[in-house]
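Write out structure tokens for O14I1 protein.
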Amino acid sequence: RELQLLHFWLFLGISLAALLGNGLILSAVACDHPLHTPRDFFLLHLSLTDLGCICTTVPKAMHNSLWGTTTISYTGCAAQAFFFVFFISAEFSLLTIMCYDRYVAICKPLHYGTLLGSRACAHMAAAAWATGFLYSLL
């Protein structure tokens, strides 16, 4: 029982730290105008996917460790798997887009504004979220 409580408090501490960190990133990028660059735009979306992954898996794990249960319903398992794959796939897509962003910034700095305008960034972010949704349907 003591090990289960330790597991619960450990999960609680780590998840609260991750939620606080991602929340600070979200609020900083959303509120501070100089942080409205493509890099920070993708970082905002990346922190949203991190929040989604945390909120998908950690609450059930904390519930299981606190109450000593080891079961999950079929619908709960399917929903958790769907959302976890959705957020992880979107995160991988966003990381790929962020690699392209850095490539353009380093290798083609004169074309950066043309290749990564606000409209192109919004389209790439929407494509990342759509990719996550399509992968989770599989």
